[in-house]
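retry 2 of 3: previous attempt timed out while embedding zinc ion. Reduced batch size to 1 and resubmitted. Inputs unchanged:
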Amino acid sequence: MPKVKKDEKGKETSIHPKYDAVRVMCACGNNFETRSTHKGDIHVEICSNCHPFFTGKQRLVDTAGRVERFRRKYAKAGEAAPAK
Ligand SMILES: [Zn+2]
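retry 2 succeeded.
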């Protein structure tokens, strides 16, 4: 069988534009190399280094706190509600 080079998605690279290494630069200052058909550097506003999902533990805790407060409020309202 002939050896066919395939990319991450399993597509034959021979029928696709050449994937060149490009530098992705984020607004947070982080930058990393990736492979893309994109020519030149790529500028992004958010990356895995600064995305709240990865860095916002504080925010996640705060969100959990809000949920907790909501639950308490809801439970209190439930207690106060007259029984049918
Ligand atoms: Zn970033």
